Amino acid sequence: MYSFIFFSLLLVAGYFIYGKFIEKVFVIRPEVTTPAYRLEDGVDFVPMPKWKTVLIQLLNIAGTGPIFGAIAGALFGPAAFAWIVFGCIFAGAVHDYKVGMLSLRSNGQNISEIVGKYLGNIPRQIMRVFSIVLLIFVGVVFVYTPAEVLRTLLGHSHIGAIDPTSIGFFYVIIAVIIAYYLLATVLPIDKIIGRIYPIFGACLLIMAVGITAMMFITGEVRTIPEFAFQNMRPDRDTNILGRIFPFLFITIACGAISGFHATQSPLMARCLKNEKEGRQVFYGSMILEGIIAMIWAAVTMAHFNHVGVAGAAAPTAPNIVTNVSITYLGVVGGILAVFGVVAAPITSGDTAFRSARLTIADILGMDQKPIKNRFLISIPLYAIGIALVMFAVADRANFNIIWRYFAWSNQTLATIGLWAAAAYLAKTGKLYCVALIPAAFMTSVVTSYFFTATETLGPLVTAITGSSETTYIVGLVIGIGLAIVLLITFIAFIGVKQNGSIKEVVTPNGVVEQPAP
Questions:
Q1: Chain-centre distance of CA 281, in angstroms?
Q2: How far apart are CA 442 and CA 362, in angstroms?
Q3: In angstroms, rounded to a whole number, what is the distance separating the alpha carbons of residues 311 and 316?
Q4: 3-class secondary structure for 148-164?
C-alpha cells in the first residue's frame, strides 16, 4: 500500500518539478502566434480552450495500453509502479512534450517530418511508412479491444432475443465503432471530437476516482505488495519472456512511454492558443495517463492478487475491467466505469485514423479542406483496417500477434522520437541529455526485445544458439551495445560538432530556425 501511495505522489510531483524544468529547457515563447490562429482552417487548425485540449490530448493518447498493459504488467509486481513513474516523468512525458512543441513550432507537422528535419531524409522516409503502419495497427487494436470489453460487460445478460456473447453481436459492436471512427476522421475536429469528448472524459474520471476510492474503502489497497528489487512473475526462471528487462518495458507501453503519442500530439499542436499551454497539454496528459496505469496495476494486484498468477489461471483484461468495476461501484457505477475504460481506446482509435489521414496528406501535399480529399485518403485506410479487424476476430491468437507487433513498434517509434528531440536540443544549444539518456535506454529495450521475443527474431536466434537463455544474453548484448554505440556517435557528431548550429528567431510567422552565425 505504501509503495503505491509513494509512487503515485512521486508521479504528481514529477509534473510540477521535472515538467517545469523540461519547459525551461525548451524555452517557450508565449508572445508567438500559434498555428491554430495563423493557419486556422476550421477543420484541423482550430483554436480551442486549454481545458478542452488537455482533455482531448488525454483521451487521444490513453487507449487500452495504460489499462490492459498495466494489468499484464502487474504480474511483475510493484516493479511495474517504478517503471510507470520513472518512465512517465523522465521518458514518456519528455517525449510527448518535445514532440508536441516541435510540431507546434513547425506549423503542426507530423512526427515523420520532425524526425526528417533533425535526423535527415532517410529517417524521414522510414518514419513516414513506420508511423502509418503503426497508426493502422493502433486503429485495429482500438476497434477490437473496446468491442471485446463491451461484449464482456453485456455477456451476463440477454437483450431480448439477442445474445451479447454471439459473434453476430460482436460484429455489430465493431461496425458501430468503425462508423464512428470514419465520421471522426473526416469531419472538422470541433464537430465530433471537440463535442463528444467531454462526455467520454466524465466517464474516464468516474472510473479513475471511483475505483481508487473503493480500493481504499474496501481495504483491498492494503493487499498490494510493497516495492522490492524483485521480479514476482512465477515463470521468471523458466521463461525469458518473464524477465523484467526488456519485457516489462514493452508490456507497459502507453502507461510509461508511447510512440503513438507522437502521432497524436500534432493534432493538439494545431489547436493550442499559446505555447505556455504545452506543459499542461503534452507533459501533463502523459502524467495523467500514468496515473490511470498506476490505478489498474494496483487494483489488479489488490483485487485479483494477480501477482504470481500466470497461464490459464490468469483472468483476461476485459474480465478484470468488468469484474472490478461492477464489484467496486455496483451495476450502474460499474457500467459508467467500464464506459470510461471503453472511452479510452475509442478516443484513441478515432484519432489514430485521423492522424494517418493527415500524415498521408502531408506526404502527398493534398489539401484537406475539401471533404472529398479526406474521403480519398480515408476509404483505403479503412479498407486495410477492416481487413485486419476481421483477421483479429477470426482467432484470438491473430489479435495477440497484432497486439505484440503494435507494442514493439509503438516503443520503437517513441525511441526515434526521443533521438529527434535530442538532436533538436543539441543543435539549438540546449541541454540535450534530457532526451538523449531516455533515447539510449529505450534503444536498448526495443533492440533487446527484437532479438529475444517469440514474434520477432527470438526463435531464429534460439535455433542458432541452441537455448533461449543464450538468446536472452545475446539480445541484451546487442541491445545495450547498440545503445552505447549510438550514444557515443550522437555525442561526437551532433552533441559536439553541431551544438548550437541552429539559432531560433521570433518572427510574425512563429519561431523560425536559422543557421547560427
A1: 15
A2: 28
A3: 10
A4: HHHHHHHCCCCECCECC
Across 287-293, average pLDDT: 94
C-alpha radius of gyration, the chain, whole number: 22
Q: If we measure between CA atoms, which residue out of 117, 118, 115, 120 comes closest to residue 130?
A: 115
Instruction: Please state the rounded mean pLDDT for residues 376-386.
Output: 90
Q: What is the mean pLDDT of the chain?
A: 86
Gap between the Cα atoms of 475 and 472, Å rounded: 5
Contact 215, 351 (CB under 8 A): no
pLDDT at 311: 43
Rounded Cα–Cα distance for residues 48 and 271 (Å): 6
Query: pLDDT per residue over 171-210, tens digit each?
Result: 888 998 888 888 877 777 556 666 777 777 777 777 888 8
Q: Tell me the sheet residues that pair with 159.
A: 162
Q: CB neighbours (10 Å) of residue 146?
A: 27
Question: Would you call 511 helix, strand, or coil by DSSP?
Answer: strand
How far is CA 228 from each of CA 71, 231, 253, 282, 476, rounded to the nearest angstrom?
A: 19, 8, 21, 31, 23
Q: What is the pTM assigned to this prediction?
A: 0.88
Phi, psi dihedrals of residue 502, rounded to the nearest 5°: -115, 135
Measured from the Cβ of residue 493, the count of other Cβ atoms closer than 10 Å reads 11
Predicted confidence at residue 312, as pLDDT, reads 39
